[in-house]
Specification:
- The complex is a heterotrimer.
- Helix content of chain A is 35%, strand content 16%.
- By secondary structure, chain A is an alpha/beta fold.
- Chain A has 2 domains: 4-110 and 145-169, no CATH class; 183-286, no CATH class.
- Chain A starts with a helix and ends with a helix.
- In chain C, α18 packs parallel to α19 (760-774).
- Chain C is α/β, with parallel strands linked by helices.
- In chain C, 57% of the residues are buried.
- The chains are: A alpha/beta, B alpha/beta, C alpha/beta.
Chain lengths: 289, 138, 1008
């Protein structure tokens, strides 16, 4: 069931592509199941029909834009993704003049994990009705308030309305009062150094140095990374704790001043390491440079 | 009896002030513990926090970064950048629970041989008390 | 007797002599430097820090010392003096006496074994007599040459040193030598001394009370390398003093048992010493007794204010007496002239800021060289106003403290100026060619084959660690093809051995484990380049200064041996990653552009032309002369400015090498050192000219601050500035004022603008004199804050003025500045006199404001084009406040005159000649060398994020918009690597210090 925004979005993408304003339009398509979407590049007005916009448009499309530098690109972005795009523009990685940003006002994305947990079984369809999410499992339809199922980062978001756009879908709304974004960082910082070390030792002991956190990060746009170890490096094979620490500390250092808090790193971490804590730490301390 | 723990310290020194100061310590035969290994760079501004991270990976228990006093930099302001970077990186180490005393930033002039020796001696003592850097889950 | 020929002889190797020698040698002239002491460095190296930046003195002087000793065009003779000068400019015959030191400078390793066994202890003059040294000694740890000297006056001839010296460097048979050299020009840079105030012992107790010191002694006490390792203690009992006092003008500004002149540097060094004392011990009470606080230089007043804010107490008054108490503290009796109260106060320690006096050898040298000294013993200039650096004999020039008290930047500027002038008589000589690069083997594709040479340095290393074990260990390391020990790696036979090993074993890297790469690296780099290896393929492990020497007290040699092995492992790991460092040069367009046609610009242009350089002189106005077109007369000789202008303009116009552009401005600058492309715009109807120049000098002068709305200026035509007064005096339009009030520091020396304009006091003194002549009946009031007549002859000029003019002098405070009111047809100035301690109301019919000064109005525009910076008052910022006063941080651009900061005509002329000398260096060399260890960018990796660009201290980085990557102007890069550390991806690397090279060392620091 298409949402109103989705209809508008498809219409705009079609028009932009048809009139030649953009060569590509970047958005989402339906993923492997109703709770998943995937980044999608529409190249023709017809392809624009495959665009979706629903309550689980989680992935940050800023990274996708980096793959199409040099082209005139239209893109549907929610507020948090726009933060990344703005950062990339300021770092000369994207050209503002080649982007047509269709901003989408966002009240927060639902957490697919939570939705799956609520549904109990595999969901056959996801739909939205006002503030409620409609989950269909077989013939059963259940209704859930969306606010209770938001991604953690959305609960503390202040970018409901994108800070930059060429046109806006949905209604601009003032930033809603939010929960304390930095509470987690402060809690960790209230521990003594050995306490923090114990916390991270445990968390990072799970890290396999798969570098998914880096691969997904739109601000990790370097063409080569001195932090990653090659596959045959013994330190990577043995998951040497000092090397794991070293990687995460350096990643934090390099992202300071770059990270826009999209928390994609944490989302994609197969070991569920709370990497967003690091992002909040950077956010709290500000840019070193 | 258990042998006392001998910490391993990596020193990264700018050529014009701190490294020259370490040389002066030698000329004056000012003694300090043999725990430090020194790497010379032209300016403390060259010191990439990656060097510090890799030093810890390579077994260092502590890293000393030393350059010219504020205003003395041979390259105008390289030491100011070093200060910002090392301070910021130190904050990261701290957040991960690595004791801040394991990364020391010191300003040593070419004439301060005694000071250089004192900095190394003091850091060696501190690290002895702290013990080896262990990052494994205990 | 053989006569050697040099181009120039420099007498004295303090900061002035070193700078002069380097400036000439860098131009390709062969320079002989003769120094009386055993080491170069002079007075500056005895100082702890330098004002007003608190730079460490030895840190900034030592690189110059090393450069001096290593320069291929400089011959250094220490322990030597000039005996006689005959002949004339272009062909001087100079007789030199070289005192033997009984130590062979070529074989001495500076190890210090001799000093340890020497039984004789004498007062260490380097530490101003506060500590002892041996009869065989090294003046100070950084001494250049690093060679021990036997002080024969104190040596008892026991021969202990001779017996212990492993290299046999000591020979009591070595005789002093008399030699003769032939030179084309000479520079006298013999420095100054400070008064030993023994004649004042009755008043201030120096030499009688142990806790009364001279400022130079105190300088050694606060110095980290001084007799107390920088701990401030009282000589009498080693206790830390809590109350320290300074008395200023001891022997200066005093006819009674002293010298009439102002010593110029004491107010600032006392302030510096007090500040450093507070840094050491914040609870110390530091008190300075002064007569006038002469914080006249750039940022001096701000420095003084900072000291006062930090708690340094300034008391205006000259203490009457100093008494010693039973606990050896001192009671100083003084009248505070601002309160009129008399106090007796107790101090733990007293420092006397004693007069700067001529070097004791000046009179003898003057006789030998046939040049004149003044009544005090300072060398005199041929013309104090217009030729301050020219001695009374043609071809002999003066620099630094030899001709009067000078601070370091003025000394350096004069040294550069003297070097420029000394280059003129020899300008037709053939200059030393740049050394041709030696042929090199290409080893880039070869596997690493390193040779490791482990030096024992006699027993200096071998005595404290096992060098054989280290060499054996080195042989086991990957990439090492050869390893051996040697007794002295720096000896000629060891060097030969290294060369042979490179050839026999096909080595493509050389690692020497010995002393410091700072002192000895270049020696070995030269050695390997002789057998076809690029100097970049050399690495050193510092197992002496940073290993054996600092572990020499340990009984167990194992830890030091293990550390040495670690250092060698690191060096070998790095050596494996080393690459050849290409030596690059850039051709230079051999011409110079001088911007500004005032005194500074004209002098610079004339000096350049006389050195043989094509010079373009661009002036915005339609006539040359700058402020000389406005000013009436010049102090202290009262020479009409018009005469000076005519003389300078004639000098410019007579020189065909100078092309003058009038009514023209610089509108565009592109390129960098060696090849600037400059566009000159001659305005509406004028031409647009494109120039190609190698270097540029900025000499754009100063302007008076706009005082409209203050002191009645702009509202009443009877309120004028000094420059307006100058014009009236010059044109004879002054009229007959009956009461003139001069207000000094108008718009300066207050909270809004703390700067002291430096020349305002002298201008007001001079103009008071001119006013008196023009209006003999007028009452003249001079309102001032501090009377800062600091320059040569100025104090005396001021004293004469007071007698001649009989002005009413009113000292005011910036907290209660003078107020001007129109009253009826007259003007009234009300002011609080801090010495009379009462409010005054003065009727005036002319008010002259000594306005705050600022850089030229066009400076903000010009600085953008030249990529240089300024301070808040639009004065240009030099590259280094002490040792590079005439350079900008931007290579190839230089500055002189009042655009840097207001200064007197002689200082301006000295600076202008100096800037010409600096600007001539790249032009005469014909090429600019690119630093081999520059940063480089890999465009395939660079993302063009630009994070690095603002980190470059030299503006060498920019964005290549076309390719979306960063670009580096290698000519501008100085090789600090700061940008490299800012790059997250490793796209930036520093040659010789790449990530790979540094990380290789780090990863090899401990066995893995």
């Amino acid at each position: 069931m298409a949402t109103q925004i989705e209809d508008q979005l498809r219409a705009r993408a079609r028009a932009l592509l048809a009139e030649g304003t953009v060569e590509l339009f970047v958005g989402y398509r339906q993923g492997s199941n109703p709770l998943r979407v995937a980044p999608f590049v529409a190249r023709t007005p017809a392809e624009a029909e495959r665009l979706v916009w629903n309550a689980v448009c989680v992935p940050n499309l800023a990274g996708t834009l980096l793959k199409h530098v040099g082209k005139r690109v239209g893109v549907a972005l929610k507020g948090c993704d726009v933060r990344s795009v703005v950062q990339l523009i300021s770092q000369r990685q994207l050209e503002r003049g080649r982007l047509h940003i269709v901003g989408v006002a966002c009240r927060g994305m639902a957490d697919p994990e939570q939705l799956a947990a609520v549904a109990g079984e595999s969901v056959d369809d996801l739909a939205q009705d006002g503030n409620e999410l409609l989950l269909s499992v077989g013939a059963e339809l259940s209704r859930h308030p969306q606010d209770g199922l938001l991604l953690a980062k959305c609960a503390t978001c202040t970018s409901q309305t994108p800070e930059l756009y060429d046109e806006l879908l949905g209604e601009a709304a003032p930033a809603a009062p939010v929960a304390d974004r930095l509470a987690g960082v402060r809690a960790l910082e209230s521990l003594d150094a050995p306490g923090r070390l114990a916390f991270w030792s445990e968390q990072l002991s799970k890290c396999t140095l798969c570098y998914a956190c880096q691969t997904v990060c739109p601000l990790c746009y370097c063409k080569q990374c001195p932090l990653t170890l090659s596959r045959d490096d013994p330190r990577r094979q043995t998951r040497e704790p000092a090397s794991v620490f070293s990687y995460h500390i350096m990643r934090a250092y390099h992202l300071a001043g770059r990270c826009t808090g999209c928390d994609e790193c944490e989302r994609v971490c197969p070991e569920n390491i709370p990497l967003s804590l690091i992002c909040r730490k950077i956010e709290q301390d500000g840019s070193p440079r | 009896m258990e042998a006392t723990f001998e910490p391993k310290i990596l020193g990264m020194l700018c050529s014009w002030c701190a490294y020259a100061g370490a040389d002066t310590a030698g000329v004056s035969r000012t003694q300090y513990p043999p725990n430090i290994r020194i790497v010379r760079v032209m300016c403390s501004g060259r010191i990439d926090p990656l060097f510090i991270a890799r030093a810890f990976e390579s077994g260092a228990d502590g890293v000393l970064v030393a350059g010219c006093h504020s205003g003395d930099c041979h390259y105008i302001s390289g030491n100011e950048y070093a200060k910002d970077r090392i301070t910021s990186f130190g904050g990261m180490l701290d957040f991960f629970g690595i004791d801040q005393r394991r990364l020391k930033l010191a300003w040593v002039s070419a004439s301060e041989g005694t000071r250089f020796a004192a900095v190394v001696a003091e850091m060696t003592e501190e690290l002895r008390a702290l013990g080896p850097l262990k990052l494994k889950v205990q | 007797m053989e006569t050697h020929t040099y181009d120039t002889l420099v007498i004295g190797a303090g900061i002035s002599g070193m700078q002069a020698a380097l400036d000439l040698a860098d131009k390709g002239y062969r320079v002989l430097v003769v120094e009386r002491q055993a080491s170069v460095g002079g007075t500056m190296v005895k100082l702890d820090k330098t004002f007003p930046t608190n730079d460490c003195a030895i840190c900034i002087a030592a690189p110059k010392m090393v450069e001096l000793a290593r320069h291929p065009n400089i011959t250094l003779m220490t322990n030597a003096r000039v005996e006689r000068v005959s002949g004339s400019v272009g062909n001087f015959e100079v007789a030199i006496w070289r005192q033997t030191t009984y130590v062979n400078p070529l074989t001495c390793k500076g190890c210090g074994d001799c000093a340890r066994v020497c039984p004789v202890e004498v007062e260490d003059q380097f530490n101003a007599g506060l500590s002892k040294r041996k009869a065989v000694y090294l003046q100070f740890p950084q001494a250049v040459p690093a060679v021990y000297t036997i002080d024969y006056a104190h040596c008892v001839g026991c021969g202990a040193c001779d017996r212990i010296c492993e290299v046999g460097a000591i020979s009591f048979l070595k005789r002093s030598q008399a030699l003769t050299v032939n030179v084309g020009s000479m520079i006298v840079a013999t420095g100054f001394e400070v008064l030993e105030p023994t004649e004042l012992r009755r008043e201030y107790g120096y030499g009688r009370f142990p806790n009364v010191l001279t400022a130079l002694q105190y300088e050694r006490i606060i110095s980290a390398s001084g007799p107390t390792d920088g701990k401030i203690t009282r000589p009498s009992d080693g206790q830390t003093p809590t109350r320290v006092a300074w008395i200023q003008c001891v022997g200066s500004r005093s006819l009674k048992g002293g010298y009439p002149y102002c010593s110029k540097i004491c107010c600032m060094y006392a302030t510096k010493e007090a500040l450093i004392t507070l840094e050491h011990a914040p609870d110390t009470q530091a008190t300075i007794f002064y007569m006038d606080l002469r914080a006249y230089g750039k940022d001096f007043q701000q420095y003084y204010r900072r000291a006062a804010d930090h708690g340094v107490r300034y008391i205006r008054g000259r203490p009457a007496s100093v008494e010693e108490n039973p606990d050896q503290s001192l009671t100083i009796t003084y009248e505070d002239t601002l309160t009129g109260e008399v106090h007796a106060e107790q101090f733990d320690m007293l420092v006397l800021s004693t007069a700067v006096v001529p070097s004791s050898d000046n009179r003898r040298l003057a006789q030998a060289a046939g040049i004149a000294v003044d009544a005090h013993g300072f060398f005199v200039s041929q013309d104090e106003l217009l030729a301050p650096l020219q001695s009374t004999r043609e071809g002999i020039f003066l620099a630094g403290g030899a001709q009067g008290p000078n601070d370091i930047p003025d000394s350096v500027a004069q040294a550069c100026g003297a070097a420029g002038l000394a280059a003129i008589p020899i300008s037709m000589r053939k200059r030393a060619a740049e050394p041709e690069p030696l042929p090199e083997r290409d080893v880039s594709a070869d596997e690493s084959r390193a040779g490791v040479f482990v030096c024992g340095c006699g027993k200096n290393i071998a005595g404290y660690l096992d060098i054989s074990a280290v060499a054996t260990f080195a042989g086991t390391l990957p990439g090492v093809a050869f390893a051996e020990t040697c007794t002295f790696a720096c000896s000629e036979d060891a060097q030969r051995r290294i060369r042979t090993a490179v050839e026999e074993h096909g080595l493509n890297r050389v690692v020497v484990a010995a002393c410091s790469p700072i002192t000895h690296g270049p020696v070995f780099q030269q050695t390997i380049s002789e057998v076809g290896l690029n100097p970049g393929l050399f690495e050193m492990a510092n197992i002496r200064n940073q290993c054996s020497w600092v572990h020499s007290h340990a009984n167990d040699h194992a830890p030091a041996t293990a550390k040495a092995e670690g250092l060698v492992r690191m060096a070998v790991a790095r050596a494996d990653k080393l690459r050849s460092l290409p030596a690059q040069t850039v051709e230079v367009t051999p011409s110079c552009l001088v911007i500004g046609g005032g005194v500074a610009g004209m002098t610079a242009a004339v000096t350049l032309a006389d050195m043989g350089i094509t010079t373009y002189l661009v002036e915005r106005e339609s006539v040359l002369g700058g402020k000389l077109n406005t000013i009436s007369t010049l102090a202290p000789s009262d020479t009409p400015a018009g005469e000076v202008r005519e003389q300078l303009v004639r000098a410019v116009l007579q020189r065909p090498r100078i092309k003058v552009f009038l009514s023209a401005e610089v509108s565009e600058v592109e390129g960098y050192v060696g090849n600037f492309r400059v566009t000159l715009d001659e305005g509406v109807g004028g031409a647009i000219t494109q120039l190609q120049v190698g270097t540029m000098i900025v000499a754009t002068g100063y302007r008076e601050a706009d005082l409209r709305g203050r002191y009645g200026y702009g509202d009443d035509l009877r309120v004028i500035t000094q420059l307006e007064l100058e014009r009236r005096l010059r044109d004879g339009t002054l009229g007959t004022p009956r009461s003139v009030v001069m207000v000094n520091c108008a718009g300066s020396m207050d909270a809004a603008n703390p700067a002291c304009c430096r020349i305002g006091c002298t201008i007001s003194v001079k103009n008071a004199r001119m006013l008196r002549r023009a209006a003999p009946e007028a009452a003249i009031f001079m309102l001032y804050q501090e009377m800062r007549v600091y320059g040569k002859g100025q104090e005396e000029y001021y004293t004469h003025m007071i007698e001649e003019v009989q002005p009413f002098r009113v000292r005011y405070d910036s907290a209660r500045p003078p107020e001007v009111r129109a009253r009826g047809r007259g003007l009234t100035v009300s002011v609080y006199d801090t010495l009379l301690r009462e409010d005054l109301s003065i009727e005036a019919d002319l008010i002259v404001l000594t306005a705050a000064l600022q850089g030229d109005a066009q400076t903000p525009r010009l600085k953008q084009m030249l990529k240089v910076s300024t301070d808040a008052q639009d004065f240009y910022s030099e590259a280094h406040a002490k040792i590079r006063p005439l350079d900008f941080t931007t290579n190839g651009v230089y500055l002189c005159g009042a655009d840097h900061y207001p200064r007197t005509i002689p200082d301006t002329i000295a600076q202008a000649a100096g800037a010409a000398s600096r600007a001539a260096i790249p032009l005469l060399r014909g090429r600019v060398t690119v630093e081999p260890i520059v940063a480089e960018v890999d465009p395939a990796v660079c993302t063009g994020c630009g994070d690095c660009v603002p980190h470059c201290p030299y503006g060498a980085m920019g964005m290549d918009i076309t390719h979306g990557v960063v670009s580096i102007a290698e000519v501008l890069c100085k090789g600090c690597g700061t940008c490299v550390a800012a790059c997250p991806s490793g796209a930036l690397q520093q040659r010789g210090f790449s990530d790979g090279q540094v990380l290789a060392m780090i990863e090899a620091a401990w066995p893995q």
